[in-house]
């Protein structure tokens, strides 16, 4: 009896160690993916800085300057790191999926694949929205607000921090439908719950828009808030579809069980 118990404990311990080893392996792969992404950005870093990073500022007539002795080297390092993370995001999410996949049922693996794919799409959509819509409006406001007797010159590192914050915030906010889908799969929220608190969500969204947009004008806040309203409505639709499919699967399973009993 004691030998059997000891064998089971050893088996469980081995399984746990294998689990840790798999986690370590996936982290290493993810880090390699990030390193490759950083290398790709580093290879074309001058093009990225001059034609992507500085483009919104140049388009809106902003003058940028470096106020620190090692400001530009640190700027290039941050551009390479952030760019590498964005490029490697799909691969990192894939490694996460490969880690959790063995513990899932076949039907669960199917929707986890979809979550991984659409999570990447939603994040990139948020990045593009921030870069092409939000940031140009905000920079235009900053460039032409106030008296002409005061010349606006911005520190390049502050400018990069502003771009990074807006892009990452927008990318994360655009994950709302996927977060709602995952929460609904675990039974934490329902479409009925989201519809019930729609009015409350409007207030919360306006507060979030006011906090995340650094400019005080209401136009930029509305520009940021409108996609959030749309994403909230999309979340309701996504959760409702998920609930209908789950209910349909339960009915099919129940019907198959009755047929087997007969």
Description of the molecule:
With 262 residues, this protein is mostly helical. It contains ten helices and two strands. The protein has helices at 2-43, 45-53, 55-59, 71-100, 106-144, 156-173, 176-185, 191-196, 198-212, 218-261, and strands at 63-65, 153-155. A two-stranded parallel ribbon has the order 1-2. The longest helix has 44 residues, at 218-261. The radius of gyration is 24 Å and the shape is flat. Residues 1-14 have low confidence and may be disordered.
Shape label = flat
Distance between the termini: 42 Å
Q: How many DSSP-defined strands?
A: 2
Number of helices: 10
- Strand percentage lies at under 5%
Mean pLDDT over all positions: 81
Rg calculated over all Cα atoms? 24 Å
Helix-strand makeup class? mainly alpha
Q: State the low-pLDDT regions, or none.
A: 1-14
Query: In order across it, which strands form the biggest sheet?
Result: 1-2
Largest sheet: 2 strands, parallel
Written as H for each helix and E for each strand, in order along the chain, the element string is: HHHEHHEHHHHH
Helix content: over 70%
